[in-house]
């Protein structure tokens, strides 16, 4: 499942997997929906004029800038079809709907991986992805599944840069009203200044009507707005959706009460979960992203409580969950369910005492059910012990030469599938070590991969790490030749007059370019680490490298990423650094 709300295949009493308003549907909206039954023998208004005027008045937006859709998801897809972008940037982790919309196009996606140590907050690193080749940028404010807001100064800097480079921004504000900070952060009132920004939102979550399917966008570029409209079906809004939307636009006090309730209950959940030793990420939305070793999804489902397992969010992994903020009685039931899980072999009172930080002694030997206390300096060692144990439990025996590389990739991703999908050419690890000892350089296709590589060990043997993606000359050449910057970067790197290890964690076009240079005998890389992530040509590009006689480490399938690429490099470097 790529979305929450799967109540149709599970027995559920309380659904924390979808982030709808804990107050439930407003009474006036419910009444309007019931009355709309009488209009089912008629076609709905194809222009939805009453709803458009109501929304314009409610939001203080020119009605000419509004476009309505059957949920925000329909609008995302219509935007992609209308613009037909060649390169799309998506920060991750993020809402899967952006990626799904892009799958219906020919566009190439670059994923900007936000950092866990920064709470998965968007940072200035995104600016490096805003090049002349970039056509469209998806942003969510607040982010889903994290719930944090983008720093307003950074967002303005992004908007200015995209305006200068003619990059379209699709700004998802579906959860912004819950934050109580809409006036400060919204771009719906800045459409004249930033006509390249499309603000997308929906009635779904704030009015608790996901079944009605009603989204909208604001676009200050009238020509673009009309072009998007042409990619929407006729009569895409039912009489029910239009009636619900018109009624919802009058619910000002309901919104104010919702903001207060969400703030109060979010703080309650955060405090309770943190007392139980569960990591809670900062949020301004009506949901919380949490991380724990507890098997929360399966165990809570046994109690007929459904939460969102976030292990399939790009950039996250096992142990991440998203929990909606609901009414207090439901939140109490959730906490009760988690406490019952934790009781295990000891009384809960002792566990609470330990997690209240009133204890002095920290010991690695303290274990309660699934909660284990480990000294900070021992965390990595303990992680590898767990990986080794689980590999044994899965009857997976790794070849000795490949063992450390595979384990470090699993450590980085928390994904044991890499034990099956990583492919090594004969003697690959030893060859990689030998090249580094001889002073080989490393060239990456992302600055993130380069930043993650241990350059201290590399420098000890006379090597350097490079990433040419942000070079102006690369951007100019790529635009002139109508190819990607990644492909040009590979050619550029071939000019380095020493052995080069190519590390590709994002762009399949980089692998294609390397393959073509090898086949044409124009250049022979010393080594290739090929682990790009994505959907378009990713698998095929990796298979090309497997056909060559160049030493390689490649991950078959769609998975990979800059973090995986850096992990492979570091596994080899750490062996040399001992």
UniProtKB/TrEMBL annotation:
<dbReference type="InterPro" id="IPR015422">
    <property type="entry name" value="PyrdxlP-dep_Trfase_small"/>
</dbReference>
<keyword id="KW-0808">Transferase</keyword>
<dbReference type="GO" id="GO:0009236">
    <property type="term" value="P:cobalamin biosynthetic process"/>
</dbReference>
<dbReference type="InterPro" id="IPR015424">
    <property type="entry name" value="PyrdxlP-dep_Trfase"/>
</dbReference>
<keyword id="KW-0169">Cobalamin biosynthesis</keyword>
<keyword id="KW-0032">Aminotransferase</keyword>
<dbReference type="InterPro" id="IPR036588">
    <property type="entry name" value="CobH/CbiC_sf"/>
</dbReference>
<dbReference type="GO" id="GO:0008483">
    <property type="term" value="F:transaminase activity"/>
</dbReference>
<dbReference type="InterPro" id="IPR003722">
    <property type="entry name" value="Cbl_synth_CobH/CbiC"/>
</dbReference>
<dbReference type="GO" id="GO:0016993">
    <property type="term" value="F:precorrin-8X methylmutase activity"/>
</dbReference>
<protein>
    <submittedName>
        <fullName>Histidinol-phosphate aminotransferase</fullName>
    </submittedName>
</protein>
<feature type="domain" description="Cobalamin biosynthesis precorrin-8X methylmutase CobH/CbiC">
    <location>
        <begin position="378"/>
        <end position="574"/>
    </location>
</feature>
<dbReference type="InterPro" id="IPR004839">
    <property type="entry name" value="Aminotransferase_I/II_large"/>
</dbReference>
<comment type="pathway">
    <text>Cofactor biosynthesis; adenosylcobalamin biosynthesis.</text>
</comment>
<dbReference type="Pfam" id="PF02570">
    <property type="entry name" value="CbiC"/>
</dbReference>
<dbReference type="Pfam" id="PF00155">
    <property type="entry name" value="Aminotran_1_2"/>
</dbReference>
<comment type="similarity">
    <text>Belongs to the CobH/CbiC family.</text>
</comment>
<feature type="domain" description="Aminotransferase class I/classII large">
    <location>
        <begin position="13"/>
        <end position="330"/>
    </location>
</feature>
<dbReference type="InterPro" id="IPR015421">
    <property type="entry name" value="PyrdxlP-dep_Trfase_major"/>
</dbReference>
<keyword id="KW-0413">Isomerase</keyword>
<dbReference type="GO" id="GO:0030170">
    <property type="term" value="F:pyridoxal phosphate binding"/>
</dbReference>
């Amino acid at each position: 499942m790529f979305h929450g709300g799967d109540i149709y295949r599970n027995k559920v009493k309380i659904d924390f997997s979808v982030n709808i308003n804990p107050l439930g549907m407003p009474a006036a909206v419910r009444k309007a929906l019931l009355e709309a039954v009488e209009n089912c023998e008629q076609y709905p208004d194809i222009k939805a004029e009453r709803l458009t005027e109501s929304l314009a008045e409610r939001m203080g937006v020119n009605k000419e800038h509004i476009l309505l859709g059957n949920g925000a998801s329909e609008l995302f897809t219509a935007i992609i079809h209308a613009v037909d972008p060649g390169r799309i940037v998506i920060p991750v982790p993020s809402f899967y709907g952006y990626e799904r919309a892009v799958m219906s196009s020919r566009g190439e996606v670059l994923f900007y991986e936000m950092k866990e140590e920064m709470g998965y907050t968007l940072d200035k690193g995104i600016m490096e992805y805003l090049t002349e080749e970039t056509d469209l940028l998806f942003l969510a404010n607040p982010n889903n599944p994290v719930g944090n807001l983008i720093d307003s100064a950074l967002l303005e800097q992004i908007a200015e840069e995209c305006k200068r480079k003619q990059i379209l921004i699709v700004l998802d504000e579906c959860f912004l009203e819950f934050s109580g900070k809409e006036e400060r952060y919204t771009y719906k009132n800045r459409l004249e200044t930033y006509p390249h920004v499309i603000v997308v939102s929906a009635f779904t979550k704030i009015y608790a009507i996901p079944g009605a399917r009603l989204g909208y966008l604001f676009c200050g570029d009238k020509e673009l707005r009309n072009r998007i409209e042409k990619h929407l079906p006729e009569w895409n809004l039912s009489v029910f959706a239009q009636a619900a939307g018109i009624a919802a636009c009058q619910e000002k006090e309901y919104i104010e009460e919702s903001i207060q309730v969400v703030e109060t209950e979010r703080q309650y959940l955060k405090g309770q979960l943190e007392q139980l030793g569960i990591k809670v990420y900062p949020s301004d939305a009506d949901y919380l992203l949490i991380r724990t070793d507890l098997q929360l999804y399966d165990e809570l489902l046994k109690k007929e409580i459904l939460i969102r397992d976030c292990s399939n969010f790009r950039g996250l992994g096992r142990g991440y969950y998203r929990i909606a903020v609901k009414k207090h009685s439901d939140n109490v039931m959730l906490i009760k369910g988690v406490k019952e899980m934790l009781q295990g072999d000891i009384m809960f009172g002792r566990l609470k005492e330990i997690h209240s930080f009133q204890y002095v002694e920290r010991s690695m030997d303290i274990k309660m059910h699934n909660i284990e206390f480990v000294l900070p300096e021992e965390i990595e060692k303990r992680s590898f012990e767990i990986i080794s144990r689980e590999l044994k439990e899965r009857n997976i025996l790794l070849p000795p030469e490949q063992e450390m590389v595979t384990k470090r990739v699993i450590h980085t991703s928390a994904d044991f599938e890499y034990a099956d999908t990583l492919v090594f050419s004969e003697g690959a690890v030893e060859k990689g070590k030998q090249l580094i000892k001889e002073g080989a350089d490393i060239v990456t296709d992302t600055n993130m991969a380069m930043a993650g590589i241990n350059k201290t060990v590399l420098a000890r043997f006379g090597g350097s790490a490079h990433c040419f993606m942000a070079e102006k000359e690369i951007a100019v050449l790529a635009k002139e030749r109508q190819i990607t910057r990644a492909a040009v970067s590979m050619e550029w790197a071939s000019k380095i007059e020493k052995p080069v290890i190519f590390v590709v964690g994002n762009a399949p076009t980089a692998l294609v370019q390397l393959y073509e240079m090898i086949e044409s005998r124009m250049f022979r890389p010393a080594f290739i680490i090929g682990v790009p992530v994505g959907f378009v040509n990713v698998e095929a590009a990796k298979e090309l490298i497997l056909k060559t006689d160049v030493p390689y480490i490649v991950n078959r399938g769609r998975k990979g990423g800059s973090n995986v690429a850096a992990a492979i490099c570091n596994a080899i470097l750490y062996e040399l650094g001992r």
